[in-house]
């Protein structure tokens, strides 16, 4: 068996992408659609999602947008019902929405701490809770089922001012390993991708000016990954034969040292 992918390896798949209004999520939604999947795009900014869906449908793809704040557990559960109604139950979940608000610990930016924990931990768990029944049902039917969580190299690196963000991503990486034990037995593939620096809107939300300058410098100094690099990676993981699970994948810009 070779891994040379067919032109539309995701034909018939139903994908959910969170954090789809920009950056890695948006690029991945476009790519999954181009490879044949129907796509439900989730984030808060409705206009951006609607414009993405318009692009996908004008390229003969099938997509729906569901504006949801994933920190709202009930709203995410409702979104899962909407996906099932519009496209059918999901068999590919790119659990990607996240925020990075780096700052020195002694600045006590506790609101930023909380926002990161609410989205990067609780939001990710809400998506798992809402869509896991879709994935296990798909696997029981004999279909390929994927849960792909976005972690970060920050999960394992010691990066100054990244403490809370890194903590949330360490949670995601280890959670992924642990639930893979249970879900792999049920033929649901579980993956974590750990990117290095990707040129997206992510640093724009940082409220600490020093940390913001640090991020801008890093972005300026090297050729970062592009969102399309991540999209290609997620598509590759999802398009592999059903018995192959890339469980953890680190992807770095070539010139990023750590
Ligand atoms: P972006 O800021 O471009 O994307 C973040 C996405 O999350 C947006 O679509 C945003 O949409 C969405 N989002 C934010 N808050 C919520 C919420 N409460 N509910 C639903 N959606 C929400 O950054 P990236 O594409 O870079 O980030 C994607 C993921 O990649 C994150 O998990 C990030 O931590 C991770 N990552 C990024 C790296 C990088 O260098 N860029 C490196 C490693 C990991 P909206 O505002 O419309 O809700």
From TrEMBL:
Keywords per UniProt: Oxidoreductase
A molecular function (GO) term: oxidoreductase activity, acting on the CH-OH group of donors, NAD or NADP as acceptor
Alphabetical list of Gene3D superfamilies matching this protein: NAD(P)-binding Rossmann-like Domain (3.40.50.720)
Top-rank lineage group of the source organism: Bacteria
InterPro entries cross-referenced by the UniProt entry: NAD(P)-bd_dom_sf, Sc_DH/Rdtase_CS, SDR_fam
Family note: Belongs to the short-chain dehydrogenases/reductases (SDR) family.
Identification of the protein by name: NADP-dependent 3-hydroxy acid dehydrogenase YdfG
